[in-house]
Amino acid sequence: MLARDAAYDGIFIVAVRTTGIFCRPDCPARKPKPENVEFYPSVREALFAGYRACKRCRPMETNGRPPVWIARIIKAAESRAPNRLRDGDLRNLDVDPARARRWFKQHYGMTFHAWQRALRLGTAFARLREGEKVTTVSNQLGYESESGFRDAFEKTFGNAPTAAAKKDCITATMIESPVGRLILGATSDAVCLLEFPDRRALEVQIETLRKRFDAPVIPGHNKWTRAAERQLKEYFARKRTDFELPLDYPGTPFQVQVWNELLKIPYGKTIAYATLAKRIKRDGACRAVGTANGANRIAIIIPCHRVVNAGGKLGGYGGGLWRKQLLLDLEQGADSNQLFG
């Protein structure tokens, strides 16, 4: 903190008792006395402790990139596949293995080595669906024995590798954006998840996806996560007003009716909850509409942020009202330098 080391951005949050604000480690503001400082592992904990975000370093926003050291080891892990990065390899990359373990546990819900294992199994799943033989995939991905590969595969997917061609999975990845980290998920056919992991009960959302699709959720990329990531970048750069992606959003008939209507709200426009209820011929069902709106699992793309209270007040938003305001300001033409710095 005293050195304003930007490499620790995303590793901890600095909260100042005397001002009631929290900052990034590299905040340019005058440094507080050590006895007035508390440290938190993430923005979420600082918010729940009653602190508010610093207006100078904007700790609730990101610069669109993961920390440099994280990007370095992810790139190394993906380029070395099927060989895993071990602790010694991390040290050679100037990364403390314990630090990598903490960061991945905090942001991905698993350790770095568990993430690598899941990434490898996700690759195996894709190759098996393309028709490759179990023995070939097992050898290519560096498993010591075919039986070990079969055990690991069945533990993750709930089926033997030979059944993979008949089953799908949800490929999920964490991406950075001007409104913070997003978890993006897609089956082989469509995008099915775009969420703010720091503001919602992410574990509940993931479990709901598993049940709805009867499919495991694994880290990685597929053609639809890549397409969605590219289109989201264009959206935040104001080069895109409509998304061209297949979407899959199972729910109750009422929820699906609400979500279908959300997709009809034009870019840059807002409607009231009461108006949304009328459009689906459910006058007076504002509360139910609001609940369905909040259950939307594909944020931004299915634009639940465009629904506001009567009189133009923001109302609620699962990603936090600051994000809702930023998204509306972006779409309504506010200066992007003022929005994202």
Q: What are the SSEs and their pairings?
A:
Layout: E1 13-16, E2 21-23, E3 37-40, H1 43-48, E4 52-53, H2 68-80, H3 87-92, H4 97-108, H5 112-129, H6 134-140, H7 146-157, E5 170-175, E6 182-186, E7 191-195, H8 202-213, E8 217-219, H9 223-236, H10 253-262, E9 271-272, H11 273-279, H12 286-294, E10 307-308, H13 321-331, H14 336-340
Parallel strand pairs: 2-4, 5-8, 9-10
Antiparallel strand pairs: 1-2, 1-3, 5-6, 6-7
Helix pairs in contact: 11-12
Radius of gyration: 22 Å
**Lateral arrangement of strands in the main beta sheet:** 3-1-2-4
The total of helices stands at: 14
What is the chain-wise order of helices and strands?
Answer: EEEHEHHHHHHEEEHEHHEHHEHH
Q: How would you characterize the largest beta sheet?
A: 4 strands, mixed
- Secondary-structure content class: alpha/beta
Low-confidence stretches: none
> Mean pLDDT across all residues, rounded?
83
For the record, give the distance between the C-alpha atoms at the N and C termini, rounded to a whole number.
Answer: 22 Å
CATH class term of the largest domain: Mainly Alpha
Q: How helix-rich are the residues, as a percent range?
A: 40-55%
Strand content: 5-15%
CATH architecture call of the largest domain? Orthogonal Bundle
**How many domain regions?**
4
What shape does the CA trace take?
Answer: flat
Strand segment count: 10
